[in-house]
Amino acid sequence: MSKLICLLSMFLYVFLGLTAQVPPVLAELPANSVQKDELTRYYLSPQRVVWQSAESEEKIRNLGVLLNPGTGQAAFGLKKEAFATLTNAAGDTTGFILDFGKEIQGGIQITTCTSNRVTHRVRVRLGESVAETCSKVVGDGTTGLAGGATNHHAMRDFVTELPGYGTKEFGESGFRFVRIDLLDHETSLNLLEVRAYAAFRDVPYLGSFECSDPRLNEIWKTGAYTVHVNMQEYLWDGIKRDRMVWLGDMHPEVMTISAVFGANPVVTKSLDFVRDQTPLPRWMNGISAYSMWWVNNQYDWYLYHGNLDYLREQQTYLSGLLDLFLTKVDSLGRENLHGEGMRFLDWPSSTNEQGVHAGLQALMVMAFTRGAELYRVLGDLSRADACEKMVDKMKSYLPDANHSKQAAALLALANLMPAEKANAEVIAVDGPKNFSTFYGYYMLQAQAKAGDHQTAMDNIRTFWGAMLDLGATTFWEDFNLDWIENAARIDEMVPEGKVDIHAAYGDYCYIGYRHSLCHGWASGPTAWLSEHVLGIHVLEPGCRTVRIESHLADLQWAKGTFPTPFGLITVRHTKLPDGSIKTEWDAPKEINIIQ
C-alpha cells in the first residue's frame, strides 16, 4: 500500500507538474530572502544517565524516565512516576549528565511538566566528553582544567530559562553529553523529556567496507560518520569548533565523501563558497597552501565524478590562480611564498620551518601537475604547457623534509622523492608517532605508494584505533599517542588518579576542552581503506576506467561497494591458501574494469 502511495505521489508531482511550494504568506516576501533548509532533523533519546549530583529522592527523583522515547509534547495531569524531578533547597544546585550514545551536530530539546506558572533557570553544558560538561566557567574564553571550553563558534555552555508545561530547543553545537543544573533555589523542576536533536544531510551510505578485522571495520565506519556529521549546509571541518569551510581541511573529507556518499552537492557548494569569498590575488582562508588544495580538490572531484560542466565553471578562477602561482617560484625552482599569507601545512608541523618549506614545494608541484591535466581537459593547451614546464623546473630542486612526516609524505606524492625513501627514512620511523589526524592520510598514501601497505594498516589500527579505545565515536582534531598513558575514557567521569585527556592536552588553537573531538580532516583511513584494501583505483574521469587491485596484507578477506556516477561497484577479495587473492566484482557496464 505504501509503495502505491509513493508511486501516486510521484505521478502527481512529476506528471501533473505539482511542486512543493513556499507557504503563501512567505511567498509574499522577496524570493531570495526565503531559503529552505537542506538538512533533516532526528531526535535522540538519552542512552544512559552518566552522573547525578545527589542520590536522595528529595533532591533528584526518577531520572530513568528520561531514557524513554519521547514526543516533544508537554502534557498535563501526569502521575509523578512519568517525569523526573530536581529539587533545590536554599543554596543547592542539583544536576545530572546524560549520554546520547554518539557525537552529533545539533542541540537539546527539554520538555517540562512543572505545575506552577513560573520559569526555571538552568545551566546547560554540552560536551564532546563527559569531563567537558563539568568545565567550571561559563564561556569566558578560558581553557584547560580550570576553565570552560569557550562558546567560540558554537554555544555549548550557557544559562537559559525553561517554561512551565512547555518545550524549548536550544544549543547548536557538536556534542554527545549534556549536563543540566537547576540554578534557582528553594524550588522544584519537573522534566518530562530531555532529547537531543541531530541535523544531517539525509543521504544514503552508498559505499561500504568490511574485512576480517573488526577494528578496521569500526575505523572505516567512524571516519565515514565523522564526515557525515560535518556535512551541514556547508562542509565543515568541525561541529563544535571550526564550523567553517577550510579548503585544505576539506581534501580528506572530499575523498571520504567520494568513497562513501558519491557526488554530494555539499562539496561543490563549499568549494564555490570559498572561491567567491576569495577574489584573486588573495589566498583562500588566508593560507597559500589552501589555494593549492582548492586545485587538488577540483582535480579529484572531476576525476571521481566527471562533471565537465562544473569544471568549466571554474576555468576563469583556476586560470587566474595558477597564473598567480607561476609568479611565486624563484629562478632556482624554489617556492617563493614568503610573506604570502600563512605558511602552513598542519598545526603539528607548523614550527618546523624547513619542513613547511618542503611541503609547500611539493604542494605547488602537485597543483601545477594537476592543473595541467585540468587545462588539457578544458582545451587550454598553452597554460597546460606552462604548468608542465614549471613542474620540470621545480623538480630540479629537492628540499630537505627535516624529519617532518607531513613534508616527506607530500614530497613522495609529488614525485619529488622516491616513496620508498620517504617511508623508510621518515614516515615509518617510530610507527605512527608524530602522525597527525589531518596529514596522517597523506602519510598513509605515501606508504601505499611505497608498497608498505602492512605498515600503513598497522598505523591505522594503532593511531586511529586508540581514539576508539578511549570512547570516541568520531575522530579528533588532533591526537598524539603519548596522551594515552594513564588517560581516562572520554565517556566516563574522570576517576581519581587518571588523566582527563580532553582537558590536559592540545596545542595551538585547540588547547584543553576547546579541542574538537569531531574533525572531518581526520577521516583519511576511510578513503584509504576503500582505495587500497577494497582496491578501487579511479583512472579516468567519472570512473570510466577503474583498476581493482587489493592489498590485503594480513587480512583474510575484504568486501564492499564503491559509488560511481553509473552505479555501485561491488567487490570481494578472498586470500587463498597459497597466499594469492581471488577477486570477484560486479560493475555497471559503462565502467571499464582493469585488474
From TrEMBL:
Transmembrane regions listed in the UniProt entry: none
GO biological process, one term: carbohydrate metabolic process
Protein name: Alpha-L-rhamnosidase six-hairpin glycosidase domain-containing protein
InterPro entries: 6-hairpin_glycosidase_sf (IPR008928), 6hp_glycosidase-like_sf (IPR012341), Bac_rhamnosid6H (IPR035396)
Domain Alpha-L-rhamnosidase six-hairpin glycosidase per the UniProt entry, residue ranges: 206-531
